[in-house]
Structure formats: C-alpha cells, structure tokens
Specification:
381 residues, Rossmann fold, alpha/beta, five-stranded parallel sheet
Length: 381
C-alpha cells in the first residue's frame, strides 16, 4: 500500500515536516509494511522554504538585511543549486512577525530587505526566483524592494524618498538607470493566494493595512499614495498592472514584482507542489493524507489541502484531511476532492494543550484513520 503524506505546517505548533513525520509514525502502528511517502507542503506562506528544501535537498542560506522598520535582521532563504532556483519568503526580511504589535507601522515600513534577498540570489547566479509573499508587515507597494535593486525614487526637490508607503505621496519621478541589469535574465514567480488589486476598497491598504498598524485615516492616505506611485510607474514602465489580481498582495509587493520584474503569479500551493514533485508521487498511490492547523471554508482559497486534493482528484486517489480543528464550512471541501476530515482533539482541550501535544495527537489520529481504512478494506473483500 502506498500512502502520500502531504500536510502543511500547524501554525505555532509543528512544521510541515514535523506533521508529516508524526502522521507517518501513527500509520506505521497499523501498517508497518506500507510505503509511506512524506511530501511536506506549504501554500506560499510560512514554511515554504523549509518544505521545498526538505523535499529537494536544497541549501538554506542566510543574509543580513534591513528589516521592515530599518533594523538589521538575519533572513533565511532557499537555494536549489542544480536548477539555479532561489526560494525567498519575503516575511523573513519584511514580515509582520519581525515587528512587535505595538510597533507596527504601515506608513513607514519597507520591503527594502526583500530586495536585498533578491540581490543575494542574483549574486549566486539565480535564473529563477520564487517569491513567497505572505505575512508582510509592509504597505509600500514594493517600492523599498525596488530601491534595493537600483530603482531611484525622487521628490520634487530631487531628494531620494525615505522608506515607507506614505512617502510615495511625494514621489515626483522614477529613475531606472541603475536598475540591476541581471534582473532581465531571471524568471520571477510570485507564490501567493491573494487576488486583491493594488488600490481601492479591496486593495492592499484597505484590506490589509489595519492589521499592519494603519488607522482609518492612514488607510486612505496609503491608498492614495500607492495610486500615485502606480501613476508614475505607468509613465516609465510598459504596462499598468495596478488592477491585476494579486497586485495588492503583501502591501503591494505583488504590484512591483509584476510591474518591474515581469513576475508571473501562481497559487502558492501549485508552486510548492511542482517543486516537491507531488503530482508524480500521487500517481499510483492508494491514499493521500493532507492537513493544516485549521480546516474550514478558507481552505478553498488556495490553501494546501485544497491544492493537494485537486492533484489527487486528477489521479482518482482518495484524500483524508487531519487538521488541528475543523472550522465553519469545512464540509465544502467534500466537493473538491476531500473524502473525509478529522480533527486532532478527541475531547475538550485548550488551544495551548493541543499545540503542545500535537505530535501525540497526530500519531493517534493517523492510527485511527488507518484502522478505519483497514476495516473498510476488509469489508469490501
């Protein structure tokens, strides 16, 4: 029997690799001779680099960069030498987790450090750069990242603009003469599940600005500033992409990546599945087990179980989900390739306890799944 184990991480508890290992240990209790193939997954957010490197035997690299508020941070990124591919999680350099809640500042935070990671990948000879852009602390339209790559932004006094999205309101002109020429030789892909445009009521500032520290007045100011930035970009770049889906991702980094780098947007789970070879692994399998911390209606918006189930469905392989919790609307996934779903706690339990005991709970639930499957198989004979 061949079983593919392809979960996402359980936030604040276990990495995707840890989840896959615990599930495998549980299955082994019932199926000691089964072929268990572990494919730790991610959807373009936290854990993307870790999952890809675990599957592809890649190299974890480290780089000192400018954090979202200017302090130096140590950011990690992935390198696949055989294919000259870099995997960069922008949250490592410009993420919300780098800024304590009381210090979050959507107006002045910058993606400059993300641009520095791109530059480090260029220095290694990257031919393909995958940007996983979830979890940003920024709302600067990707301007900071582009500045790190050589784009110059000036005000009416010919002074370089300071960091942050609010400063873009003072932008007078853009100079591309010092843009790193190596960028033209690189294929950029954005791994994300956000389809928002850059501006407007569904744009980066309105939807994501408040969680990054922006009050209602600042949201309006930032939205106007990003629109002003897009106006000037349209003067020097071949295409205006502000309305394209995904331009509002990561505080507008999606816009800059599309406009300046020609990046292609792809569902994060699709990119990870390709890199880890999930399609080939699923072919010929008897069962796929996937999971995430919370399995609910939001899973339909490109989360890992959705992507895994879609691939399994193409090959006629049944899918079982093991999740930390089952939330509202999870049943909708039964129409999208999922055959059954199980939550970890067998009884009342606090979130803290569930997180701390996740390995044991995963082993128990995986063993339960195997026992039920074994009974069904015997009855079918």
């Amino acid at each position: 029997m061949k079983i593919i184990i392809a979960p996402d991480s359980f936030k604040d508890s276990l990495s995707a690799e840890g989840v896959a290992q615990a599930i495998a240990e549980g299955l082994r209790q019932v199926w000691p001779d089964a072929e268990l193939v572990q494919c730790p997954m991610a959807d373009g957010g936290e854990g993307t680099v870790e999952s890809v490197l675990a599957a592809c035997n890649g190299e974890l690299r480290s780089q000192s960069v400018r954090g979202p508020l200017g302090a130096t941070v140590e950011a990690h990124w992935g390198w696949l030498a055989d294919s000259h591919t870099a995997i960069i999680e922008m949250a490592e350099a410009s993420g919300l987790q780098l800024v304590p809640p009381g210090q979050r500042d959507a107006c002045s935070s910058s993606t400059y450090g993300t641009g520095e990671l791109i530059r480090a990948a260029l220095d290694l000879g990257a031919q393909r750069i995958i940007l996983a852009i979830g979890g940003s602390a920024t709302n600067d339209g990707g301007a900071g990242a582009m500045q790190a790559l050589g784009v110059q932004l000036f005000d009416t006094q010919e002074q370089a603009l300071p960091p942050g999205g609010l400063a873009l309101a003072r932008l007078a002109h853009i100079d591309l003469e010092q843009l790193d020429p190596r960028l033209a030789q690189v294929r950029f892909e954005i791994a994300a599940d956000v389809n928002n445009p850059l501006c407007g009521p569904h744009g980066a500032s309105a939807i994501f600005g408040p969680q990054k520290g922006a009050n209602p007045e600042q949201v309006q100011q930032l939205d106007a500033a990003l629109g002003h930035f897009a106006d000037h970009c349209a003067k020097v770049l071949p295409k205006d992409v502000r309305e394209e889906p995904g331009s509002g991702a990561a505080g507008g980094l999606g816009f800059a990546a599309k406009a300046f780098l020609g990046a292609q947007f792809r569902a994060g789970v699709e990119v990870v599945a390709e890199l880890v070879g999930l399609d080939a692994a699923v072919r010929g399998a008897d069962l796929v087990i996937t999971g995430e911390g919370r399995f609910d209606a939001q899973t339909l918006r490109g989360k890992t179980p959705f992507g895994v189930a879609r691939i399994a469905q193409q090959h006629g392989v049944p899918v079982i989900v093991i999740a930390g919790t089952l939330g509202d609307g999870y049943e909708q996934m039964y129409a999208h390739g999922v055959d059954a779903a199980f939550a970890l706690p067998a009884g009342p339990m606090s979130l803290e306890q569930a997180c701390s005991e996740a390995p044991r709970l995963l082993r128990e639930r995986a063993a339960d799944v195997a026992r039920v499957w074994r009974v069904a198989a015997l009855r079918a004979q």
